[in-house]
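User: Hey, my collaborator sent me this sequence without any context and asked if I could get a structure. I don't really work with proteins. Can you help?
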Amino acid sequence: MKSSGTLIAAASLLALGGMSAQASCVGPDQKPGAVIPLPQKLLQSLTLKQPQGSDAGRNVVGTWLATYTVEGNPFGQAYIQWHSDGTEWENINLPLMGGNICMGSWKMLDSKHVYRDHWGWLYTDGVISGYFNETETDKVTHGGTYTGTNEQKIYDLNGNLQADVTGTSSAVKIIP
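Assistant: No problem. I've predicted the 3D structure and written it out in structure-token form, which is a compact way to encode the shape of the chain:
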């Protein structure tokens, strides 16, 4: 988001290059989403103590609250659902006008790591002007957390790379 949530640094690069765009997960001209205090009910449902085994593919399935950085700076938070069929979607706390829903696919790399591949459209004044791809590798614990690194590449409609930024993610699983 992303998911997904690494377009702020790309905004600077796009501004320098003259390309104005809005991503489906976040517009580069938008300010990062705030890291906000969570409601008590949500805090009570977050888990750090629900062992689920040692298989990252099984442990990642479910709903998560993820926190992102971009180029070392806080960026936003997102709810992410990882599905057992290898798909995932994300809703990040960024303004709706640039889009804040992303989706993609994932696969298990080994017993501790998963790899996520996110694609989305970019918009300028409501017209498609490019697309982005975010890839992320996460280490999933059996205790309901994951941490990872991501890279987001932004392209114009001709497939020319416009920006390439990196970031991190950390997440806590929400147990029903």
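In plain terms: The chain is about 10% helix and 50% strand. You can pass these tokens on to your collaborator as they are.
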